[in-house]
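Next up, a chain.

===
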Amino acid sequence: MKKLKFWGHHSSLVLLLAIAGLVVDQIAKFWAVAHFSGGGIPTIPVGPFLDLVLVWNKGVSYGFFQQTTELGRWGLAAFTVVASVFIWFWSARASNRLEGFCLGLVLSGALSNGFDRLYYGKVVDYLYFHVGEFSWYVFNLADAWIVIGAAGLLLDTLFIGKNKDSQP
């Protein structure tokens, strides 16, 4: 069995990305809460497909698993802590810079949304994506970090790492 590794070759990159992503998203969330909490404030159009809004999400992605009790809230917060620790130990074994970069993004998103769960009891979403009358998704930068990081990990696993191993 391999020894548990706390720090690896790409850990500095992961830590830097995790902190930077957390700070940027929390600044945006702080602004959204301060700006929209007064009530009656209309959405702010950013472009034809994107508006700034304030939505409180008591669940996970796409509003699944909505939690209405304190037990549910703390359960999701505990899951976030466990997932973040898992991601950190995974990142300590990252074999290339892309894997470390992607894990840093995923960790920053998990930490930022986890902070919201601990501080507010729910996650602050503020980016509303829509096409005309079709309403698709309200999310935050932390969600975007997680999706981009997961997509990069998938790319690395399926194509980049595979090709690297098969080269002479």
